[in-house]
Design goal:
The protein is mainly α. It has one domain: Growth Hormone, Chain: A. 83% of the residues lie in helices and 0% in strands. The radius of gyration is 20 Å and the shape is globular.
C-alpha cells in the first residue's frame, strides 16, 4: 500500500508547480463548498419555511456569476489573477455573514445575500477556469479533473456528515441555549477561516494573467456554438437540481443530520472510482463517461418519481452522487479542448470563451430555476419535486448526443 501511495505522490509531483498549487488550493476550498451549497438552503428553510426563497437565493447566485465574469475580465487588465481568485473565496464567507445577519428572511434580503455569493462564485470560477486551462494540457486534464473531483467528493463525505451532525447534536442537546442558528454561525466562521487559508496558498503558484485583449464578442465559430448549446443543457439541470435534493431530503427523509448522512452515502466509492478514472482514462473515454453520468441521473430521477418516498430519495441521491462527478470529469476537459481549438482558430483571448461559456450556463440555469419557482408557487411543490425532476433529467440526457457531435468536430479540427 505504502509503495503505491508513494508512486502516486511522485506522479503528482511530476506535474507543473502551477497545476499542483491550483489543485491544493482547490482542496482547501473544497471543504467550504458543501457547507455553502447544502446548508445555506437548509438554513433558509429552517428560518422561513418558504421553499421559493431557497430558489430565489440560488437564482441571485446564478445572476451574480456571469456579471462577475465580465467585471473580472476588465479587472484582469490591472489586478493579479491570484488576488481576484482570493477575493472570490473570501466573498463566500461574507455572503454567509450577510445571510446570518438578517433579522427576518425576506425576498430582498435573501436575493442580496445570494448576489454576494454569486460574486464569490464568479471571481472563483472565472479565474479557476482560466488557471486550469493554462496549467494543464489535453493529455493530463483527465488526471487533473479526476484529482479535483476526487477532492470535492471526499469533502462531500466528511463535511456534510460532520456539519449535519454538529447541527443535529446542537438541537438535540440544547447547546448554545438551544439556539440552532448559533451552530450555523459557527459554520460561517469555519468557512471564512478556510477561505483565508486557501487565499494565502494560491499566491504561491506564481500564476500569470491572460494577455490584455478584448474578450466581448457575439459571433463565434460553429464548434463553439455547439459547446454553448451543451452548456445550456447542463445549466438547466444545475438550476433545477441545486435545490431539489435538499428539499426532497428535508421533506421526505429528515432534518440536517440525516441530510449530511445521505450526502455521505456512497461518496467514498465514487471518490475512489473518480481517482482511478482520472489516472487511467484518456480523451477518447470522455464521451462514454459522460453518457454513464447522464444515464445515472435519469435512473435516479426515475426512482424518485416512481417511489416518492424516503427510499426513492436515497436512491436518487446515490445515483446523483455518482452522476455529478462523472459528468464533470468528462465535461470540463472537453470544454477546455474546445477553447484550445477555437481560440487558436479565431485568434482570440481564451478568457473570451470562459466568459461566454458562463453566459450559456446562465441561460440554462435561469430556465431551470424559473421552472422550479413557477411549479412550486403556482402548481405544487409535489409536482416540482416528483415529476418535473424526471423531465429535467431526460432533457439533460440529450447533452450526451450534443457532446458526441462536439467530440466528432474536435477530431476533424485537429
Amino acid at each position: 500500500m505504502w509503495p503505491k501511495l508513494t508512486q502516486e505522490f511522485k506522479f503528482f509531483n511530476s506535474h507543473s508547480l502551477g497545476m499542483r498549487m491550483l489543485l491544493l488550493t482547490n482542496l482547501i476550498y473544497a471543504l467550504v463548498m458543501p457547507i455553502v451549497e447544502l446548508f445555506i438552503g437548509a438554513y433558509i428553510m429552517r428560518n422561513s419555511s418558504d421553499i421559493s426563497l431557497v430558489v430565489i437565493f440560488q437564482l441571485a447566485v446564478y445572476t451574480g456569476i456571469p456579471l462577475t465574469f465580465m467585471i473580472n475580465g476588465f479587472l484582469l487588465h490591472s489586478i493579479r489573477i491570484a488576488r481576484l481568485y482570493s477575493l472570490g473565496m473570501l466573498l463566500s464567507g461574507v455572503s454567509m455573514f450577510a445571510m446570518m445577519s438578517l433579522d427576518q428572511l425576506d425576498t430582498f434580503g435573501v436575493f442580496m445575500a445570494g448576489l454576494i455569493m454569486g460574486l464569490s462564485y464568479g471571481f472563483f470560477w472565472a479565474n479557476r477556469d482560466f488557471l486550469a486551462l493554462n496549467t494543464t494540457h489535453d493529455g493530463n486534464r483527465n488526471y487533473y479533473y479526476g484529482i479535483e473531483t476526487f477532492f470535492y467528493t471526499i469533502t462531500g463525505i466528511v463535511v456534510p456528515f460532520a456539519a449535519g451532525a454538529f447541527i443535529a447534536t446542537t438541537e438535540k442537546n440544547g447547546w448554545f441555549g438551544g439556539n440552532v442558528n448559533v451552530a450555523y454561525y459557527g459554520l460561517t466562521v469555519f468557512v471564512f477561516a478556510l477561505s483565508i487559508f486557501a487565499s494565502m496558498l494560491v499566491h504561491r503558484g506564481d500564476f500569470q494573467n491572460p494577455k490584455r485583449a478584448p474578450f466581448l464578442y457575439f459571433k463565434f465559430d460553429r464548434l463553439w456554438n455547439k459547446m454553448l448549446g451543451l452548456a445550456s443543457l447542463k445549466g438547466v439541470a444545475q438550476g433545477y437540481i441545486v435545490t431539489a435534493p435538499t428539499m426532497l431530503i428535508l421533506s421526505l427523509v429528515g432534518k440536517e443530520g440525516v441530510l449530511g448522512a445521505v450526502q455521505s452515502t456512497a461518496a467514498l466509492l465514487s471518490a475512489i472510482l473518480l481517482y482511478i478514472l482520472g489516472r487511467i482514462t484518456t480523451p477518447r473515454h470522455r464521451l462514454a463517461i459522460y453518457g454513464i453520468g447522464c444515464g445515472l441521473f435519469v435512473l435516479g430521477a426515475f426512482f424518485n418519481a416512481a417511489m416518492y418516498s424516503a427510499l426513492g430519495v436515497i436512491l436518487f441521491m446515490v445515483c446523483l452522487l455518482f452522476a455529478r462527478p462523472l459528468l464533470d470529469i468528462a465535461y470540463f476537459p472537453v470544454q477546455l479542448k474546445v477553447i484550445d481549438v477555437v481560440s487558436e482558430k479565431e485568434n482570440r483571448n481564451e478568457f473570451t470563451y470562459i466568459f461566454n461559456h458562463e453566459l450559456g450556463l446562465y441561460l440554462g440555469r435561469l430556465f431551470g430555476c424559473g421552472l422550479f419557482i413557477l411549479l412550486a408557487r403556482y402548481v405544487s411543490e409535489y409536482v416540482a419535486l416528483r415529476y418535473a425532476l424526471l423531465v429535467i433529467a431526460v432533457v439533460h440526457f440529450m447533452g450526451w448526443f450534443a457532446m458526441g457531435n462536439i467530440v466528432k468536430d474536435i477530431k476533424e479540427s485537429t
